[in-house]
């Protein structure tokens, strides 16, 4: 829970000054790495990787990006929605801490600060969703299956 609270604080601070984007760094790196590895595993052919923030139009910032040479209908959904997988990191940390039976210490605040950006970065961006929608042929069997189980 401290990580979720810190994520909320990081989100508020980042609205006041771009320097606070540094608080997002661990989450941004994981977000972009999931795109990169999903693209590499599904033959999307990643060609560019960046985690350096850059200002776009107005007050809009892009914190990181990965470019691909071969986004196709069969791999777009995996590449676009890959950041959802980073939610496994806090889940694994939580289960690991609970199963080891260790008491919590001050160093856990540092762990919470590193995990907090994950709660800000696991959501696929608008661009990610648009890429995932290129996999619309997957929607046909999913829609048929959903209709079948509901009747």
From TrEMBL:
Key words of the record: Membrane, Transmembrane, Transmembrane helix
Domain of life: Bacteria
Sequence intervals crossing the membrane: 73-93, 105-123, 129-149
Protein name, per record: Peptidase M50 domain-containing protein
Organism of origin: Noviherbaspirillum autotrophicum
